[in-house]
Amino acid sequence: MTALHAPGTQAPVTPAPPALAPPALARLVQIELRKAVDTRAGRWLLAVIALVALGTAILTAVTGGAGERDLPHVLGDAVQLVSILLPVLGVLLVTSEWSQHTALTTFTLVPRRSRIIAAKLAAGVLLAAAATVVCVAVSAVVLVAADHGQAGMWQDAGRAIGYAFVFQILNLLLGVGFGLLFRNTPVAVVMYFVIPAAWSILTGAISALTAAGHWLDPSTAWNHLAGGGTVTAASWGQVATAAAMWIALPVLAGGWRVLNRPVDA
Asked: How far is Cα 87 from Cα 58, in angstroms, rounded to an integer?
């Protein structure tokens, strides 16, 4: 029924609902960090990472040779073993949206999908930094507990810790890239274990590819950062080149798929 108004009067205008401000990027990063520990798989993986770091530090500090009982060597061994698991954490950080069927809800609440991708990358960096802090802490505690009275136990510790941060961030972002590229947890995890290993075997077995392996094999290029020694300009170039191939390319290709294809595709 049509409402009648007195002559010369106008119908009241209903005010438009206020526009909702999009959540800040820091809030999105906080949500992504919470997602990493909300699942049983994520919690178990974080616990295993901590146990691997502790066990490796103890073995190196107790059974290592006299020249290996210092922070750079103990930390280097710890971060190298932890780095095997960190990319899996990066994969889960991305693929959980599809495996738990929350992608549609996430991208409905935050239509700008690029912000979700940026939040996942930032959360990956923070998780890698946290894993490095755990490795540093357990390495230092184990060395103090198993003090052999060795001089120079803390020599070059600052440099080794800085390199370890970069090393772990690269490895976790590798997993994020594979997660964006495949968007399926089993497939992305299998591809992470198979493709880099196959490339490493290939460059090691074929002499013509050995030189390329120094620049394009992450297990070769990035391990400069885990040894605790001085990283030269050429080594940094190898680190950057391997990062461009194994992180930048998958993130760009996977990000394009996320941005331009239907959520369920």
From this structure: 23
pTM of the entire structure?
Answer: 0.86
255 is a domain residue? yes
Q: What does the pLDDT look like over 55-76, one tens digit per residue?
A: 998 888 887 666 667 888 889 8
What was the pLDDT predicted at 262?
Answer: 80
Count other Cβ atoms within 10 Å, centred on residue 242.
23
Q: Which helix (H) or strand (E) holds 118?
A: helix 113-145
Is 52 a member of any domain?
yes
CA angle 138, 218, 122 (to 5 degrees): 65
Which parts of the chain sit beneath pLDDT 50?
1
Q: What is the pLDDT of residue 144?
A: 83
Query: Into how many domains does the chain fold?
Result: 1
Decide if 44 is inside a domain: yes
- Domain interval for residue 127: 25-260
Distance between start and end Cα atoms, the chain: 46
210-231 b/e with 16+ CB inside 10 Å = b? eeebbbbbbbbbbbbbbbbeeb
Report residue 150 as tokens.
């060795």
Domain membership of residue 5 (yes or no) is no
Cα–Cα distance between 169 and 182 in angstroms, integer? 20
> Do residues 105 and 61 lie in contact, with contact meaning Cβ atoms separated by under 8 Å?
no
